[in-house]
Each structure stands twice: as structure tokens, then as C-alpha cells.
Specification:
heterodimer; A: 458 residues; alpha+beta; Rossmann fold; Neuraminidase; 3 domains; 6-stranded mixed β-sheet; elongated; B: 257 residues; Immunoglobulin-like; 60s Ribosomal Protein L30, Chain: A; 2 domains; 5-stranded mixed β-sheet
Chain lengths: 458, 257
């Protein structure tokens, strides 16, 4: 039974785009399955990854700012390709000493031979001209001696350290798009989160790698649960006012708050339907907190659930827009459920413990969530991040013994999960971490005081 | 204190009822003029009477004006005042809440009208309460007296059901609130800092609503209660032990200013 389910999952994934996310999960499932040819075909580990060398870019202007921007660019590009999770990056110490600035200067034999043994080489040049950074980026196939060039791109932006990083992100995404089995890169994506400052919490934004952290809201109250719209233009969240928590809307295009109607009771945890024309949220306007949906302007509100007990944290199936996963306390401790968007077909997914904060994978087949499986006074449980395959309800645990984890959010390519972590369990020490969807390559993106991350859409 | 409180609850109710009933009374004779009951004295139209009071509620020591109008009446008597003209007004200053009852008699029979007036008697202040009255002349009481009488409700772990002791506390709170009609109540729902922020806000909402329901069941009008759930935001303490967690698992009552 299990075998056939997973085999079909793998077959479906031959659309390539999500092959890696499946593959890493399958690595976890595979010990349960004995040998299965289908799995070995799809499984990806570091030896199967594309070996890529990233050359230091060649400075091509006398402007004294050039070397600073070049260092920022080189560092960012290397980090982007390392974080992508699909490359085996040639260690810097194994690279040839030359720094080719263009195709004519490239001697591929040096790069394809041991010890670099690169299959692909990214290289190019950077210059500062008339207050602009101009970057020419090349990607070569080192094994193709006759026509090695995969692509060449030119970028030109106003000179600043931030733009040097943004150009590196765009070049990295271009490489990932070509080599990532059809999957898009995420180096240009953003992460929205909650930043604690004293008693208050504001909504902040940062690049996917933790750079460029800055505040968006200045409301002077407690703002929670930022959720970015599918067109990346609006941010829904909830903020504490005189009448309790209410849904609020921030326009990233206008860089200010826009109106959203208030309703009775507590209204929180908004979630966007993939079309961007509907939101789901928790509202207690009729007394008991239930899941409601409305259009994106907050009108035509409609109640979806109706059971005594808290219902909160809805999230839409981003692939179909036809299902909602959410957290309900209808049987006591909060559990993970899914239902059709009209409230029918309710299915409980977790079998106990304390489950919260679902995030639906972009391919629609997995739910990431926070789960304390041994919850209770004096119980030994810890709250960790789990991923569940929806059709089989089988799960894997992605975090272990790093303190309390919560609020997982999938990257738009489905390869990464960002989450909140507090090493000692104290709320004030919460920080944002990222990892691959198989739980590897964990690293912190922020210091203390950052919580509730939400990854932007592509 | 207790008796007064009960009396007050009753009095408020009585005003509401008598308003409706008084209105009905004043119209009854009109509707009866064509009724079969008056057939034996068909030559003489039945008397009609209305009795109003302005204002309907006063503080003790203040006065109000009774105003009555009758038709087809030959003698009119108001209980507690005695025989009065068929139409007239009178200023009275009752020391207790009173139902003024008017009986109008005429050749066509007799009819009655009544009006209930409420006299607000200041509650005997609790110790330290004397400076409490605010500029509105209301009886807001002090925060200390409020918290002494309207005690926070604590909840079991991950529960929003009221404990038995909380039910009793709600009755005490309702009694105090009935005696201080100027007070509006803000109920804040709180959770301990374990668990997840979003879920805890809905749990806090259910806790505050449980306390609200208990107050309403005990007779406090819903319009005097505002509910806000804070979840695990704005906590009272941040230690990682059961004492602190219990401290945070509560519905807290405050005067809503």
C-alpha cells in the first residue's frame, strides 16, 4: 500500500519541477520500503548534484568602489548557489587561480580537470560605469569543449551594495532556472516576518538570505501573522486594537496601510487563496472562533466551519485553491485538519499531541506544520517542524533538539522551509531559521526577536 | 449590600416591564370603548387615563414631575397622593422606587394607569471607596474595589471551561456590577506562553467569552461588556513555571474606560 502510494507520487513528480522535494522526502521514507528501483532512480544526494564552480568575478573598472561591490557580488552568488540545495559547489580552495572575465579568457580544461572537476562554471566581470554597476555573467558547460556557453547575461543597476546583491540574486536564479530541473530559483524572493521591539511587534521584510532587514509597519501595537498576496503586492496580517485583533492590509506598492473592514470579535491569521481573490481567516464575530472566507477586500464574508472550540490558522492548497488546511481545538488539544474550501470533506490529519501553524507545499502534496507530539504539563515533548504527505498521512520530523520551533513556511520552489526557532524556549529569543525541505542545511537568518516568517510567492 | 444589589436588579427589570405595561394600560380603555364589556353602560363612555413621569429615574433627593390626563372621569385618585384634579401635574420626591397608580372613575366605569419611577440610592461605600466617584457623578468605584469584587477567572491547562469556583466568582461580580451600573467591563483573555501564538489568541477569546457568558447569565447586560483576546501577548509574567503559567491562563476583568 505504502509502496504503491509513494511510487505514484514519484511518477507524478516526473514533471521535474518538484522532483527534488520528492526525492529528499523519499530518502526519508525509503528505509521503510526496502529496495525500490523507482526510488533509486529519483533519489538525490550530494554525489548526484551538479558540480558547479563559481569563479571570482573580474573587476573591470578603476573606480575605487569596484572591489567592494565585487566582493558583495561574489559572496552573494556563492551563498545563493550553495543554499539552492541542487548543486555540489567546488570548494574555493580547489579553484584554478585564474579569474576569467569573459569567454575568450576562459580556459575550461583548467576547470573541468581535477581537483576542481567542475561540470559547470559560472564566471564573468563587474565594472562601475557612470554610477552604475555593470555585470556580465557567463555560465559554461565544462564538458562541452566545442560550444561550452550555456548563456551570458548583462545586468546594469544603480551602484549600491544592495544592487550588487540583487544582481547576484538574479544571476543565481538564472543559473538555477537552467540547471534546476525546471524549478525556479528563489534568490530574488522575500521573507516577511514579525519583529519584536519592546512591548510592540511590527511587520518586517528581508531578502530570502536574511539580508536587507527593514520595517514595513509602524503601528505601535502587536502585529502578527503576515501573509503576502500571490502577486506579492499586499500583505495581510492582524493587529491588536481597542476591539482586539483585526485583519489589516498593507500595500507594498503604496508602502502604506490600506483600508480593510473591521468585524466583531477577534479576527486573525489571514491566508490568501492562490488566485489572490479570496482570503481565509479565523473570526469570532459569532462568538466562537471559526474559519471564514471573504473576498480580498474583506467583503462577502462567509463562515466555513461550525464546531465549538477554536478554529484558526487556515492555509489554502496553493496548487488547487480548492482545499483549506487549518488548526482546530474541537476535540481538545489543537489538531491539524483539511477540508474543501466550502467546509465539506473535513479530515483530521494528526492523531494527537499539539499541532499548529500549517503551511501547504507549492505542489499541493505536503503540509509542513509545528507539532509537539508529547504535549502536556511535565511531558517530555518538544515542539518541532514536521512534513506530512497528505494522501498517506505519513510524516517526517525535520527539526530535532534545537529548542521550540513554529511557523514553517515553504519557499515558492518547494525546496526550502523557513521557520521560527527559540533555542531556550523563551519567546524573546525567537529567531528565524531556514533549511532544505529534508531538514538539512539549517542556518539562522536573523538574531533574536524575529518570529512568524512568511515566504513570498514567486 | 447584597440585598440592595438584588433589589436593584429587580428595580431595573421592573422599570423595563412597567414601561411596556404602562403603555398598554393607557391604550386599553380606548380599545375597550367599542368592546362588548362596556355594553351595559353604553350610554356613558368609559373613562380613559394616562399617567407619565419625567424623568423616570432619579437619584435620591431629586424630584420628578407626574403628569396625568383623563377623559370622562369624575374622580381621580393617585395612590400615595390622594384625590387630584382630573387633569394635572405634580412634583414629587419619593425616597424609594415607587409605582404610582392612578384610578379614574366616571359614569362609564373606571380605569387605571400606572408608572414606575426608579430612585437610585447610593451604595454604601466600601472602605477606601470614598474618593471613587468620577466627574459623571456615577458610582464607578475604585479599581481596588472593582478587583476585590470582580475577580479574575483562571482556567485549566488548554481549557476554556469555567471551573466551579469561577461560576461563584461570576455571581459575586454580577452583584457588584449591578450595584455600580456606571461601570463597563473589559474582559481580557490570556494564555500561558507555551503553545502557539495564533491558536492561543483563539483560546483566549473563548476564555474571555466564557467569562462574558457567565456574567450575562448572572444578569449583567451584554452591552456593558467588551471582550478582547490577547493570547500570549502582553503577559503578566514570563517565568517558565506552573505558578506563572497559571497566572497567565486567565480572563482578566478591568473597568472599561
Amino acid at each position: 500500500m505504502m509502496q504503491s502510494l509513494l511510487r505514484s507520487a514519484v511518477l507524478k513528480s516526473s514533471s521535474k519541477q518538484y522532483a527534488l522535494a520528492f526525492a529528499v522526502l523519499c530518502v526519508f521514507f525509503s528505509p521503510l520500503l526496502r529496495a525500490q528501483d523507482t526510488f533509486h532512480l529519483e533519489a538525490t544526494n550530494s554525489t548526484d548534484r551538479i558540480r558547479i564552480a563559481v569563479a571570482a568575478f573580474k573587476p573591470q573598472s578603476a573606480d575605487p568602489a569596484t572591489s567592494g561591490y565585487k566582493n558583495t557580488f561574489d559572496t552573494t552568488l556563492f551563498a545563493d548557489l550553495s543554499a539552492a540545495g541542487i548543486f555540489d559547489i567546488v570548494s574555493k580552495s580547489l579553484l584554478p587561480p585564474s579569474a576569467p572575465g569573459n569567454q575568450a579568457e576562459m580556459n575550461l580544461a583548467q576547470w573541468s580537470a581535477a581537483p576542481a572537476s567542475a561540470a559547470m562554471v559560472a564566471f564573468g566581470n563587474l565594472a562601475v560605469q557612470n554610477g552604475h554597476i555593470v555585470v556580465n555573467g557567463f555560465l559554461d558547460d565544462a564538458k562541452n569543449t566545442q560550444f561550452p556557453q550555456v548563456f551570458v547575461k548583462q545586468y546594469s543597476e544603480e551602484a549600491s551594495d544592495d544592487q550588487a546583491r540583487q544582481i547576484a540574486h538574479r544571476f543565481a536564479d538564472e543559473i538555477i532556472a537552467r540547471l534546476g530541473g525546471g524549478g525556479v530559483g528563489i534568490a530574488e524572493t522575500k521573507i516577511y516576518y514579525v519583529k519584536q521591539t519592546g512591548q510592540n511587534k511590527e511587520i518586517w521584510e528581508m531578502d530570502y538570505d536574511g539580508a536587507n532587514q527593514h520595517a514595513l509597519t509602524h503601528l505601535g501595537t502587536v502585529s502578527l501573522s503576515p501573509r503576502i498576496s500571490p502577486d506579492n503586492s499586499r500583505l495581510a496580517f492582524s493587529a491588536l486594537g481597542r476591539e482586539g485583533f483585526q485583519i489589516k492590509m498593507f500595500s507594498l506598492l503604496l508602502n502604506r496601510m490600506v483600508t480593510f473592514p473591521a468585524a466583531g470579535g477577534t479576527n486573525l491569521s489571514p491566508a490568501w487563496a492562490p488566485g489572490g481573490n479570496q482570503i481565509a481567516f479565523s473570526s469570532s464575530r459569532t462568538g466562537d472562533p471559526e474559519i471564514w472566507t471573504s473576498d480580498a477586500a474583506g467583503n462577502i464574508a462567509r463562515r466555513v466551519t461550525s464546531f465549538r472550540g477554536p478554529d484558526v490558522s487556515p492555509v489554502w492548497n496553493p496548487k488547487t485553491g480548492a482545499q483549506i488546511a487549518w488548526i482546530s481545538g474541537r476535540t481538545g488539544l489543537p489538531q491539524l485538519y483539511i477540508m474543501d474550501a466550502d467546509g465539506s470533506g473535513v479530515q483530521r490529519m494528526t492523531d494527537g499531541g499539539y499541532a499548529t501553524s500549517p503551511s501547504w507545499s507549492p505542489n499541493g502534496q505536503f503540509l509542513a506544520f509545528a507539532w509537539d507530539r508529547k504535549y502536556g504539563p511535565g511531558a517530555p515533548g518538544g515542539q518541532d517542524i514536521y512534513v506530512m504527505e497528505i494522501t498517506s498521512k505519513r510524516w517526517i520530523q525535520l527539526t530535532h533538539d534545537i529548542g521550540r520551533c513554529d511557523f514553517p513556511s515553504w519557499s515558492p520552489d518547494g525546496r526550502h522551509i523557513v521557520f521560527a526557532n527559540t533555542p531556550d524556549g523563551k519567546a524573546a529569543h525567537t529567531r528565524i531559521m531556514t533549511m532544505l525541505a529534508d531538514g538539512t542545511q539549517k542556518r539562522a537568518l536573523t538574531g533574536s526577536g524575529a518570529d512568524m516568517p512568511n515566504w513570498s510567492w514567486k | 449590600m447584597t440585598l440592595q444589589a438584588k433589589f436593584w436588579k429587580g428595580a431595573t427589570l421592573a422599570v423595563a416591564l412597567s414601561l411596556a405595561v404602562g403603555c398598554h394600560h393607557s391604550k386599553q380603555p380606548l380599545s375597550n370603548t367599542n368592546g362588548l364589556d362596556n355594553a351595559p353602560t353604553s350610554e356613558q363612555p368609559a373613562p380613559t387615563a394616562t399617567l407619565t413621569a419625567d424623568p423616570l429615574a432619579i437619584d435620591i433627593g431629586q424630584s420628578l414631575v407626574l403628569n396625568w390626563r383623563t377623559t370622562n372621569a369624575t374622580s381621580v385618585v393617585i395612590d400615595g397622593i390622594g384625590p387630584v384634579p382630573v387633569n394635572g401635574t405634580q412634583t414629587v420626591s419619593p425616597s424609594n422606587s415607587t409605582t404610582f397608580r392612578l384610578v379614574a372613575k366616571g359614569d362609564g366605569g373606571s380605569t387605571e394607569a400606572s408608572v414606575r419611577v426608579t430612585v437610585r440610592v447610593p451604595v454604601v461605600p466600601v472602605a477606601g471607596d470614598s474618593t471613587a466617584n468620577n466627574e459623571a457623578g456615577g458610582d464607578m468605584g475604585t479599581d481596588a474595589a472593582f478587583h476585590q469584587n470582580v475577580q479574575d477567572v483562571f482556567f485549566d491547562y488548554d481549557s476554556f471551561d469555567l471551573r466551579p469556583d469561577a461560576q461563584q466568582a461570576a455571581l459575586n461580580a454580577a452583584r457588584y456590577l449591578a450595584a455600580h451600573p456606571a461601570i463597563k467591563v473589559l474582559i481580557g483573555g490570556y494564555c500561558d506562553d507555551r503553545g502557539s501564538a495564533e491558536y492561543n489568541i483563539t483560546l483566549g477569546e473563548n476564555r474571555a467569552n466564557a467569562a462574558r457568558t457567565a456574567l450575562i447569565s448572572a444578569g449583567v447586560p451584554a452591552s456593558r461588556i467588551r471582550v478582547v483576546s490577547y493570547g500570549k501577548e502582553r503577559q503578566f509574567c514570563s517565568e517558565e513555571n506552573e505558578t506563572c503559567w497559571q497566572e497567565n491562563r486567565r480572563a482578566q476583568f478591568n473597568i472599561d474606560r
